[in-house]
Amino acid sequence: MHMADALLSPQTAITMYLASSAVAIKSVKEVSKENNLEKISMMGVSAALVFAGQMINYTIPGTGSSGHLCGGLLLSAILGPYAGFLAMIVILAIQCLFFADGGLMALGANVWNMAFYGCFVGYFLIYQPIMKTRMNTRMKIIIASVLGCIVTLQLGSFSVCLETKLSGITSLPLGSFAMIMQPIHLAIGFVEGLITSAILLFINEYRPEVLNIGRENKLSMNKLVAIMAVLVVLTGGAFSLYASGNPDGLEWSLFQEKNMGLNEDDYGVSSSLSDKAGAIVDKTAFLPDYGFADGEGGTSLAGLVGSAIVAAVAALIYAVGKLNRNRTKGNFE
User: Fold this and answer.
1) Residue 63 — φ and ψ, nearest 5°?
2) Rounded to an integer, what is the distance from CA 79 to the centroid of its chain?
3) 44-91 pLDDT tens trace
4) What are the angstrom distances between the C-alpha of 130 and each of 148, 149, 201, 302?
């Protein structure tokens, strides 16, 4: 669901930057109030896992399309919604700047569509209420994960429809475009829900404290982080080689002849702002499209390097927030 700059007008892109920035500022303030040093390592490895997971497109049978993990709800369940949102910003920004995945001008919209709904709507309105019920814990995790991912991907995909319509990209009525986007993302959301529940069930079994579940931990935090780090390496360095080559839900909706049928080499709008944003990404993206510039290989390297960068930046952001909070408290004591 990573939008390219050509899908947005500058006015819409700036509006989405402002909206996402407001939520990011709120998230920074909330995270700075936390006092959990163990979360530094979890923030890094969880963000890296989502980055690596997003590299693996899974085929949606019978459609010619594919989907990939979004990760907002997963990160929120592990880290909390505010830290999860900041981790998603790190992931999406690094994907854009270093791998040319999603436009720089469109980054605000991508953060909103892929992070806001999962981290806040999915967590506060679906995941958290279900987890407070008296159902069996495993069943709660499965239902909350699947339902949360389905609903938030529906919201995110509809936002894409709305943003492109407001930008004047498509001549199709909003309802017609939504009728293409929503069903395919329903299937993608269902698969993401199963993936999310599988990871959370593992954490619940061995380190329930991470999910705020009051039961004895079978693994230390260091061992859990180590296991997740191994999964990151395997996912980014090996499993990514077997990702589906089918277009993702957004590309499938836009460029398939039976859908919108846009020309993939000539579509959307151009502006001086998008041209400048594109020029920046051209200079910063050292592994465009998760591979070498000549198009031959580089996927495993991209997965490993990208995961490492995401882990380091996400952990650093949380650590700096803790340091700043402690210094501020010290000045008033």
Assistant:
1) -120, -25
2) 14
3) 999 999 999 999 999 999 999 999 999 999 999 999 999 999 999 999
4) 10, 13, 15, 37
